[in-house]
Design brief:
Blueprint lengths: L5 E4 L9 H15 L7 H5 L3 H7 L7 H12 L12 H10 L3 E6 L3 H10 L8 E4 L6 H12 L6 E5 L2 H10 L2 E5 L6 H6 L4 E3 L3 H13 L1
Parallel strand pairs: 1-2, 1-4, 2-3, 4-5, 5-6
Helix pairs in contact: 1-4, 5-10, 7-8
Length: 214
């Protein structure tokens, strides 16, 4: 992997500490939409996304409705979310090294920006893209490559779920999986990321190592 010129971040569970809020919203919607609520969070973190959907009775054809309702309900909590500790220093360090930052998330852009503004971090990102589909980020990543006129080797995607790793693989870009988000480390490692990151500072170290190697 060459030194990335652009790092694209997932949002929920990667930047924003939103697991508890997300579970609360999901469980609030579950009776109305006919899904099984999350009763054991550690067990849920050990499931891949498709496994989770099956266990909670969510078919793929019903998924778009859930995503829309979920993000609408989550809007009320967007400016109450906090970013994970240490990320602000990582943003500053990456930008000082000439790395541009962007966000690609299945959450809505307005929700993401409300959280970033509340945490004083909106100016750290060159763009924020809300792509309201759980599956399909690979297409959005390829669009980013074209819009930014970058080669695949110039981009690193950072996410917290196996589907983030899957999307990056399909788009042909490197991917770092962070262990502080929605999926447990074992699930992330099984998905085959280029890097597994257990604390934010390691992302800055990773870029520095690549630059030294280059």
């Amino acid at each position: 992997m060459t030194t990335p010129r652009l790092i694209v971040w997932d949002f929920d569970g990667t930047l924003a500490d939103s697991l508890a809020a997300s579970v609360a919203v999901f469980n609030r919607l579950a009776p109305e939409l006919g899904f099984r609520p999350v009763e054991d969070v550690p067990a849920a973190r050990g499931l891949g996304t498709r496994q989770f959907l099956r266990q909670h009775g969510i078919s793929l054809w019903r998924l778009p409705r859930l995503v829309r309702r979920f993000h609408a309900a989550a809007a009320d909590e967007a400016d109450k979310l906090v970013l994970f500790a240490g990320l602000a220093d990582v943003f500053a360090g990456l930008r000082a090294r000439g790395v541009r930052l962007g966000i690609l998330s299945s959450n809505r852009e307005d929700n993401i920006r409300r959280c970033l503004r509340a945490n004083g971090a909106e100016e750290s990102f060159a763009f924020v893209i809300g792509y309201p589909r759980l599956f399909g980020k690979a297409k959005a990543l390829r669009r980013i490559l074209r819009a930014e006129r970058l080669a695949r080797a110039d981009v690193l995607y950072v996410g917290d779920e196996g589907r983030d790793v899957e999307a990056a693989r399909k788009a042909g870009v490197a991917v770092a999986a962070v262990t502080w988000g929605f999926h447990a480390e074992a699930v992330l490692r099984a998905s085959g990321p280029d890097h597994v990151v257990t604390e934010p500072r390691q992302l800055l170290d990773l870029v520095s190592e690549q630059r030294a190697a280059g």
